[in-house]
Write a structure and sequence with these properties.
By secondary structure, the chain is of the alpha+beta class. The protein has a 7-stranded antiparallel beta sheet with strand order 2-1-6-7-8-9-10. A 6-stranded mixed beta sheet has the order 11-17-18-5-19-20, with helices on one face. The protein contains 11 helices and 20 strands.
Length: 441
């Protein structure tokens, strides 16, 4: 679970900026809080508001950039294009990230400093929360050399010492991350950290869930969850399921080569998930061991109670967006799963979105984390969220750099109309519209 993210010199963020999931002293919605220890409570949810161009999406892009970097284990191209461009001094400065995660009942703090194609600095510590941090490793690099400092407990044996020296002098390139060598190092904390980072999932407005047929065909509880949630809303969909079609019937003569490639790559007891004409398809075996194609479809009932099948693409944009969210919400039952959703309100009616989030946030069994950006002011409701779960993004009028801050910084009364205060500009995070009067419309 995410504790905090700190970034600087990345896209619209100039100076060091912090976003965190630390629970404050609020007494409301106690089931929104995950108690790590007596000293540390983490939030399960957070919402981020702000005008267009304020930096909300750039924060999400920041976590995606860092996640991909850690999972891939290297910089594949120069990061200079990602730097804050409105300050000439930043051209020579590095991009910096610090990510603090709860991993297997430990708090791990990872930091990295990037410039061009070089990982200048990298470190990993175990947090003592209110005491000194414990070193796991520190690394400094130039184009031609690496210096690595491992905690003494990882250099005890002769094998460990030799391995660390080989990685430092020969294996680790200046564009590679030391955490990317977790298999060679065989250090549990590094391996678990990378595994936890891989559970961070980012959904942008144009993202599509490419495994819907697998999701609906696998765990029975997943399909049940999807239909229970879908039936809560007035979408006109009676049920979502999969349709099975013989592979020879699904692919015609024009797709003979593709079909043969699929058949040759199929293995017994293994399924294959492909994208065909932008549509996710599951290639699998039926009960008679024949190869079939499964695609996700929706069922609608006519006035005569006759069932009609619709392709997902035939549904409204709002329904399709909802279907992209359902697997994400189901995965929130898994500890350690973190979802970032950019513009959660896109294509979804405000009343439906609020009802959806009410259903999710009132569920006491969810143990993952959900963080999203939105413009939808109807969600600014303290009956729905805690004060420390509401964040705002705003551009500094002088430096033009983004900054984010929590509603908790303002200490509003619980009975205050947060939506009204937000629209009046009391908390910032909304566009200044005063100059529209100059248009003389």
């Amino acid at each position: 679970m995410i504790v905090r993210l700190i970034l600087s010199n990345f896209l619209s963020f100039d100076n060091e900026t912090e976003f965190n999931m630390l629970a404050g002293s609020n007494k409301t919605h106690k089931h929104h809080v995950y108690s790590f220890s007596e000293k540390l409570n983490l939030l399960k949810y957070a919402s981020i508001y702000g005008a267009n161009g304020a930096g909300k999406s750039n924060l999400i892009k920041g976590i995606e950039f860092l996640r991909d970097l850690i999972v891939d284990g290297e910089l594949t191209s120069s990061c200079d294009s990602q730097k804050f461009k409105l300050n000439d001094e930043n051209r020579k400065k590095p991009i910096k990230f610090e990510l603090e995660l709860e991993v297997n009942n430990q708090i791990l703090i990872y930091g990295i400093s990037l410039n061009g194609l070089i990982v200048e600095e990298e470190w990993l510590y175990e947090s003592g929360i209110n005491s000194d941090h414990k070193l796991i490793f520190e690394r400094q690099s130039t184009k031609d050399s690496n210096t690595i400092k491992l905690a003494p407990k990882y250099r005890k044996s002769k094998h460990q010492k030799v391995l660390a020296d080989v990685i430092e002098k020969n294996i680790l390139k200046s564009n590679e991350l030391l955490v990317g060598k977790y298999k060679e190092l065989d250090i549990e904390e590094i391996r678990d950290f990378v595994k936890s980072v891989s559970k961070i999932i980012v959904i942008f407005p144009n993202s599509k869930f490419g495994a819907l047929p697998s999701f609906l065909s696998g765990d029975h509880n997943a399909k049940k969850f999807a239909n229970e949630l879908l039936n809560t809303f007035d979408t006109g969909v009676d049920e979502i399921c999969t349709q099975s079609i013989d592979i020879n019937k699904y692919f015609g003569k024009d797709d003979e080569e593709l079909k043969n490639d699929i058949l040759s790559s199929m293995e017994p007891d293994h399924d294959l998930l492909i994208s065909y004409l932008g549509k996710p398809l599951l290639i699998t075996h039926d009960d008679e061991n024949k190869i079939i194609v499964k695609k996700a479809v929706t069922k609608h009932l006519t006035s005569d109670n006759e069932t009609i099948l619709f392709d997902i693409e035939d549904e409204s944009q709002g329904t399709q967006r909802l279907l992209d969210f359902i697997p994400a919400f189901h995965m929130l039952y898994q500890k350690g799963t973190v979802f970032f959703i950019d513009e959660i309100d896109q294509s979804i009616h405000p009343a439906l979105l609020k009802k959806l989030l009410e259903k999710i946030l009132n569920n006491t069994d969810l143990i993952g984390q959900l963080i999203f950006t939105t413009h939808e002011s109807n969600l600014l409701d303290l009956k729905l969220f805690r004060q420390d779960e509401i964040w705002f993004a705003e551009k500094d009028p002088v430096s033009k750099s983004s900054q984010i801050y929590s509603l908790n910084d303002f200490k509003p009364r619980y009975d205050l109309d947060i939506r009204k205060g937000y629209l009046q500009g009391r908390f910032g995070g909304i566009p200044f519209l005063g100059h529209l009067s100059n248009l003389d419309w």
